[in-house]
Design brief:
442 residues, alpha/beta, single chain, binds S-adenosylmethionine, binds iron/sulfur cluster, 6-stranded parallel beta sheet, 5-stranded mixed beta barrel, globular
């Protein structure tokens, strides 16, 4: 029998990339074949993000494009997974009549059952139970795809922090840590297929294990991953500043496989706004953690997330954000205009900021950071860096691309270098978002 074909379009964060991968594994194990062209698929799954309004809108435009395919091929099944699926549930089936099934963030294990049911019953289906502190990956069979050098591994799901702007606790549920035994087994299965760099994922990895009696903590988990044969590099994201422990900070100087990079979202430089955001730290505490990180590991690259135009943000609050960015000199940052999200406390706060003002602040913040990033990148010119080669460069396929331990992209001519090689590259030129270099050794 010919196998059915599936196509997955993923929006949003690394967590969604990871979930799409696990869904792809489950479908492949049931003899479905993955395709890169939606026009060839029998099943299309859109894995969605609802953290801000813009990515949520993108989902509906993608669905519109797939509807055109369904007109040509009526048997095509279209499903929506991820955070929008969780947020909207049955309403999505009402709003988008050609969607066949909705698969919530904690229901991914049911993908093949849902497809079978859709075909046998003829009903459109919605599976969006969130449950309590349930690990959605528990006992899911592992079928890692070979040929990759880097991989994501989810170590926890959900979040208990309820920052006032954030929808995550409502669409990913309460925080639950996976068993360290399962995480380590998964990493072993990945290294067996050639993976050398793992990125541990969670909304707040620093609180890993806190709510699981008898489980190790995050610094101990890093130590355990360091001992897995075949792992050469370890990364993690995201760290919440309030839970960044001294032991974790010391891990950067101590664990040779732990890469010198931390993504530590600050969100605002104003204590008044941080409090309204319910972030649980002051700017002074954040500054102190940055200093401790730099003392433990002077090479460390520090990146962050910032929100502009949070309700009630006055010009002087925004200036405090610019001031702390200037002072800390982040290696890079992601910045966002605040957007109201359903269920969140911030959505009912007064003092909403007009869009044009948010945009002006965003532009000012980004141009400041561009200068800082350019200076940071220029400081690498002339230095020799270790690069883990990931494959051909996107812009010039005759070149190779990879990352430094500090998470900078490096492109260099190197025709014969296979993915998975560690090479030494001399940085020749710093560009806005990457470095170009010359290969020194194979
Ligand atoms: N767990 C991470 C943390 O605590 O920093 C962040 C996860 S969130 C998926 C990624 C980023 O999206 C946040 O750091 C924040 O900057 C941004 N974000 C979240 N909700 C937002 C909103 N309502 N408006 C604008 N940006 C938002
Ligand atoms: Fe959202 Fe805050 Fe949890 Fe991050 S820590 S996922 S911003 S609630």
């Amino acid at each position: 029998m010919l196998s059915k074909k599936f196509f997955i379009q993923t929006f949003g964060c690394q967590m969604n990339v990871y979930d799409s991968e696990r869904i792809a594994q489950l479908l492949t194990a049931r003899n479905y074949q993955k395709v890169d062209d939606p026009a060839r698929a029998d099943v299309i799954l859109v894995n969605t993000c609802s953290v801000r309004e813009k990515p949520e809108q993108k989902v509906y435009s993608a669905l519109g494009r797939f509807q055109a395919l369904k007109r040509k091929k009526p048997g095509l099944l279209i499903g929506v997974g991820g955070c929008v699926a969780q947020q909207e549930g049955k309403k999505l089936l009402e709003r988008v009549p050609y969607v066949d099934f909705v698969l919530g963030t904690k229901e991914l294990r049911r993908i093949t059952e849902i497809l079978d049911l859709r075909e046998s019953s003829g009903y459109r289906l919605c599976a969006t139970a969130l449950g309590g502190r349930i690990d959605p990956y528990r006992d899911l069979p592992l079928f890692p795809i070979s040929g990759r050098t880097t991989a994501f591994v989810s170590i926890m799901q959900g979040c208990d922090n309820f920052c006032s702007f954030c929808i995550v606790p409502f669409v990913r549920g309460r925080e639950v840590s996976r068993a360290s035994k399962d995480i380590l087994e998964e990493i072993q299965s990945l290294t067996a297929t050639g993976v050398q760099e793992v990125t541990l994922l969670g909304q707040n990895v620093n609180s890993y294990g806190n709510r699981a009696p008898g489980e190790i903590n995050f610094a101990e988990l890093l130590e355990a991953v360091q001992r897995v044969p075949g792992v050469e590099r370890i990364r993690f994201t995201t760290s919440h500043p309030k839970d960044l422990s001294p032991r974790l900070i010391q891990s950067f100087g101590r664990l040779p496989k732990l890469c010198e990079h931390i993504h530590l979202p600050l969100q605002s430089g104003s204590n008044r706004i941080l409090e309204r955001m319910r972030r649980g730290y002051l700017r002074e505490e954040y500054w102190e953690k940055v200093n401790s990180l730099r003392r433990a590991c002077p090479e460390i690259s520090i990146t962050t997330d910032m929100i502009v135009g949070f309700p009630g943000e006055e010009e002087r609050d925004f200036e405090e954000s610019l001031e702390i960015i200037e002072r800390i000199q982040f290696d890079d940052l992601f910045s966002f205009r605040y957007s109201d999200r359903p269920h969140t406390r911030a959505s009912s706060l007064t003092g909403k900021i007009p869009e044009d003002l948010k945009q002006r602040r965003l532009t000012d913040l980004q141009s400041l950071q561009q200068k800082i990033t350019a200076g940071k990148n220029r400081a690498w010119e002339g230095r020799v860096v270790e690069v883990l080669v990931e494959g051909p460069s996107k812009a010039r396929t005759e070149e190779k691309t990879g990352r430094t331990r500090t998470n900078r992209i490096v492109n260099f001519p190197g025709d014969s270098i296979p993915p998975g090689s560690f090479v030494r590259v001399r940085v020749e030129k710093a560009l806005a978002h990457s470095l170009r270099g010359e290969l020194l050794s194979e």
